[in-house]
């Protein structure tokens, strides 16, 4: 079962998480000063224009697996920075109770993985055949990881854009095409 997940998620290697809406924009994590647990998290999670480098590399690790005969749909995972030791992507969807055009909540880093660092890794669009995936918070089940790379048009040292979360009324339905909550894993 674990091998099936690793193969599907390509978690044996470092991967990039690239926006499906903004094809040259990648998820970026600056965990340079994240060296201990803090309640509200710390560090910076934002976007970076190609080419992807060390701060845009991640490991997607399973938390648990369904039995081997269960159809693959969504898997509980942690998103670990490949560059920063023990630094995970963290999502706080507090106060998110309806969709918002600009998203909301807070996405940053956390030292060590606890409840806010758990996501469902899920195939989107055409049963995953088009290679799109999403990350839905386990702790905030209506909230999805959202990347807005609207003004990210050149590679910069500090990155740019906005990474936050988006609320969906029905978290178990497939996400619409063209939304900021879908990604390619490569």
Report what the structure shows.
With 186 residues, the chain is mainly β. The protein has a single domain (2-185), classed as Trefoil (Acidic Fibroblast Growth Factor, subunit A) (Trefoil), CATH 2.80.10.50. The chain contains 1 helix and 12 strands; from the N terminus they run αββββββββββββ. A 6-stranded antiparallel β-sheet has the order 1-12-9-8-5-4, with helices on one face. A two-stranded antiparallel sheet has the order 2-3. It has a two-stranded antiparallel sheet with strand order 6-7. β8 and β9 (132-137) form a beta hairpin. The chain is globular and about 35 Å long.
Globular, elongated, flat, extended or rod-shaped: what is the shape? Answer: globular
Biggest beta sheet summary = 6 strands, antiparallel
In helices, the fraction of residues equals under 10%
What count of helical segments does DSSP give?
1
- Unreliable stretches: none
Q: Tell me, what is the CATH class? A: Mainly Beta
Number of domains: 1
Q: What pattern of helices and strands is seen along the backbone?
A: HEEEEEEEEEEEE
Based on secondary structure, the structural category is mainly beta
Q: What is the CA–CA distance across the termini?
A: 21 Å
CATH topology: Trefoil (Acidic Fibroblast Growth Factor, subunit A)
Average pLDDT over all residues = 90
Question: Strand percentage, roughly?
Answer: 35-45%
State the total count of DSSP E strands.
12
Evaluate the radius of gyration. 15 Å
**Assigned CATH architecture:** Trefoil
What is the spatial order of strands in the main beta sheet? Answer: 1-12-9-8-5-4
Protein name: Extracellular metalloprotease
Keywords: Hydrolase, Metalloprotease, Protease
GO molecular function: metallopeptidase activity
């Amino acid at each position: 079962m674990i091998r099936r997940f690793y193969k599907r998620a390509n978690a044996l290697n470092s991967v990039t998480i690239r926006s499906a809406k903004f094809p040259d924009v990648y998820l970026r994590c600056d965990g340079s000063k994240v060296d201990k647990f803090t309640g509200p998290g710390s560090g910076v999670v934002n976007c970076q224009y190609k080419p992807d480098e060390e701060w845009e590399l991640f490991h997607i690790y399973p938390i648990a697996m369904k039995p081997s005969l269960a159809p693959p749909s969504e898997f509980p995972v942690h998103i670990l920075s490949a560059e920063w030791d023990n630094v995970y992507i963290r999502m706080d969807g507090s106060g998110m109770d309806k969709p918002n055009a600009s998203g909301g909540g807070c996405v940053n880093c956390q030292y060590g993985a606890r409840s806010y660092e758990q996501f469902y890794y899920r195939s989107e669009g055409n049963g995953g055949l088009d290679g799109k995936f999403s990350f839905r918070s386990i702790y905030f089940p209506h909230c999805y990881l959202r990347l807005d790379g609207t003004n990210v048009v050149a590679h910069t040292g500090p990155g740019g854009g906005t990474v936050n979360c988006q609320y969906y009324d029905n978290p178990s339905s497939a996400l619409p095409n063209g939304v900021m909550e879908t990604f390619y894993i490569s």
